[in-house]
User: What shape does this take?
Amino acid sequence: MPEEVPVLQVDGISKSFDGVEVVSNVSLKIHSGETISILGPSGSGKSTLLRCINWLEKPDRGDVYLAGKRVGRKEDDQLMSDHELASVRTQMGMVFQSFNLWPHFTVLQNVIEAPVHVLGVSKDDAVVRGEHLLVKVGLEAKRDAYPYSLSGGQKQRVAIARALAMSPTVMLFDEPTSALDPELVGEVLSVMRDLAAEGMTMVVVTHEMSFARDVCQEVVFMDDGQVVEQSTPDKFFSNPQTDRAKRFLTRYE
Assistant: This one.
């Protein structure tokens, strides 16, 4: 039988800034329903890799494929237009460290804005979907609240609901708990655990070792822009194969 087409495939992605290569020849495959974590020290290229995947940063070399279709470039190697790229990005939900909510919109308005104005969903249908998603992230009581009145954890859960409202093929998380007070981390990770259990395909850049160990099917460890080690969580956390990964993990023992 032919191999299943990965939901997301990264082939040899490299990216430099000011002559310094921060992502170097990285390749990944993520299949439907998988959650993979990307771990590594600060400055190892994790977030830049994630931004290259959805072409918020244009890779210098390499290709990204979403459900077998090339992202960012057409088959004739010409760059996609901004409109074409925006259409592709609707299939890749992105959750950032900062919440990026519209301060003048209520929670529900934040969730339904893009489906209505980007996807052309009717407002009534978007509201029904939005309310369902707010229940999913435990914020149905905050539908009419404004972002200024929310905690950091609540804002991040709204950001997750907003990304899910676009019905993405894959979710990308860029250290979604790093800006939160420690006591608020758990409520965001709980939502992400539920999404993984429901079969959402996710790529998670994180420093939350328990999430990587308990939820993910694969761990990718990066350092100095390169993938140093890639394995199952059990193997990575119990028997890392590289000295660099061993040194990294000693910080969390």
